[in-house]
Design brief:
alpha+beta, Aminopeptidase, five-stranded mixed beta sheet, globular
């Protein structure tokens, strides 16, 4: 675990349909990780992606980001329901916090083929 990093809160910009909050882990002037959440209608909070730079993984940064977000939610969103789509690697922490495991999802993707439309831009 490293202690020479800071967690910085990024408040919602007010420019999106849903309110997003974020936290960034920094060391010096470098971002080494982030985590986000989105406030949705119906008193729901969606936990969004998290990322930690490969060189800084396994040092407690992900857990610190997660705990910081969790404390924020517990202080500011009583009565809401939090949910997340989790990768298997993240599941133990969510279960540790009392989240119930739902159905399994499978990732699928497809390349969109065809011509790229021409867009004229005039300056």
């Amino acid at each position: 675990m490293i202690d020479n990093y800071k967690i910085v809160y990024v408040p919602p910009s007010g420019t999106t349909q849903h309110t997003q909050h974020g936290w960034i882990a920094t060391t010096g002037n470098k971002c080494v990780g982030h985590i986000r959440m989105q406030q949705e209608a119906g008193k729901r909070i969606k936990f969004l992606d998290a990322w930690v730079d490969e060189d800084y993984r396994r040092k407690g940064i992900y857990r610190k980001l997660w705990e910081t977000r969790w404390e924020y939610v517990q202080q500011n969103y009583k009565g809401y329901k939090a949910y997340a789509w989790a990768k298997p690697m993240s599941l133990p922490l969510l279960e540790e916090k009392g989240f119930d495991k739902g159905d399994i999802c499978v990732y699928v993707e497809k390349d969109i083929e065809g011509e790229i439309p021409f867009t004229f831009v005039s300056c």
